Amino acid sequence: MRYTANGQAVTTFNVAVNRRAGGQEGERRDDTTWFRVVAWERLAETCAQYLQKGRAVLVEGRIVTRSWDGQDGQKHYAWELRADNVQFLGGRGESSGAAASPGLPVGADGEGDLEADDLPF
User: Fold this and answer.
1) What confidence tens digit (pLDDT) does each residue in 42-66 have?
2) 1 burial type by CB count under 10 A (0-12 exposed, 13-18 middle, 19+ buried)
3) What is the gyration radius of the CA atoms in the chain, in angstroms?
4) First to last CA, the chain
5) 2-19+29-114 CATH fold
């Protein structure tokens, strides 16, 4: 977690979404899609405190498109999920050291806009 120049807490984390798909010949395979999630203010602080690698979460939010001009002169795009709610799933024993209760929903208190200096690219 970090703070923007105007004092807003922000954290980012990645979430994997697994989907089992059937192949052309009937075989089953798992497809994984990764999403970058951005949380702000109190939600960012809670996520930074309780999230850890492998922890199951349910994230609700909206897709935000970011664009920038790269050093190569080309326009680049990235899609992020701006979290409005994060629900921590599973019990305490299912992830080491997590102190949040099972199914604890956490809502976003405030919103902030990313400044150019806040972008990781």
Assistant:
1) 999 999 999 999 999 999 999 999 9
2) middle
3) 17
4) 17
5) OB fold (Dihydrolipoamide Acetyltransferase, E2P) (2.40.50)
**At 4, which amino acid appears?**
T
Buried-state track 25-34, b at ≥16 Cβ within 10 A, e below 16? eeeeeeeeee
DSSP lists the bridge partners of residue 107 as: 85
pTM value surpassing 0.70: no
- Show the DSSP H helices in the chain as ranges: 41-50
Q: How far apart are CA 85 and CA 59, in angstroms?
A: 6
Structure tokens belonging to residue 11: 């954290």
At 72, the amino acid letter reads D
